[in-house]
Amino acid sequence: MVISKIQIVENILSANDRIAEENLEYLNARNILAVNIMASPGAGKTSVILQTIRLLSPDIRIAVIEGDTAPVTIDSDKVSHLGIPVTQINTGGNCHLDAMMVRKGLQHLELDHTDLVIIENIGNLICPASFKLGTHISLVIASVPEGDDKPYKYPGIYRGIDCLILNKIDLLPYIDFNQDYFRKGIKVLNPGIPIFPISCKTLEGFDAWTGWLHTKMPGK
Ligand code: MG
Ligand code: ZN
């Protein structure tokens, strides 16, 4: 019998989904909300995470899992400087996090006093969409310099998300970025999801984003 390539890929994904389900149960048993942040490289994932921490902590107790393709601790160090527990997962060049990596990250963190786990996925708009991690919320950070056509070019990643952050809106005066065109693309793929235009420079829009996240916290 020949096992097709498609069958193998489906088996890997369903094994991943089972572990993702266990991660979710692990988090729910501890009353912890988890967020999976996806984006292309340079969209500002770490900057958004840092500012989100500044606004929500210490009222909300946060821990971070940093996905990185190389064993450099640049992003982890920035989080750690804020006094936030952080664990780094090196994928060894792999282009996405999977549920098993996140399980290890969760086990590594001291989560007895945590309300929110933020997971920074690998910078990539394609395969992170296929690997559930067991989070309650998954989102994409798009950014103005990447262009307004991203939802049309990478539809897969926008379909399954719960909200979208549009970062670097301070650059709108300098870049041809048609917000209506961008929003139309999102609306077709994922109607009704909240979109938060923000800037890590001016901090515009952060209250709306963190306010929304706050409403998702169990018991808050
Ligand atoms: Mg980063
Ligand atoms: Zn990948």
Spans of at least 5 consecutive residues with low confidence: none
Distinct small molecules bound, one entry per kind:
magnesium ion, zinc ion
Distance between the termini: 54 Å
Kindly identify the CATH topology: Rossmann fold
**Which architecture would the CATH scheme give at its second level?**
3-Layer(aba) Sandwich
The number of helical runs is 8
- The fraction of residues assigned to DSSP E strands is 15-25%
**E-strand count:** 7
The CATH homologous superfamily name equals: P-loop containing nucleotide triphosphate hydrolases
Structural domains: how many: 1
The geometry reads as globular
Indicate the percent of residues in helices: 25-40%
Strand order of the largest sheet: 3-2-4-1-5-6-7
Characteristic terms for this protein:
18% strand, 7 strands, binds magnesium ion, 220 residues, alpha/beta, binds zinc ion
Can you offer a commentary on this structure?
The chain is α/β, with parallel strands linked by helices. The protein has a single domain (2-215), classed as P-loop containing nucleotide triphosphate hydrolases (Rossmann fold, 3-Layer(aba) Sandwich), CATH 3.40.50.300. It has eight helices and seven strands. The chain has a seven-stranded parallel β-sheet with strand order 3-2-4-1-5-6-7, with helices on both faces. It is globular. Residues 45-46, 75, 120 line the site of magnesium ion (MG).
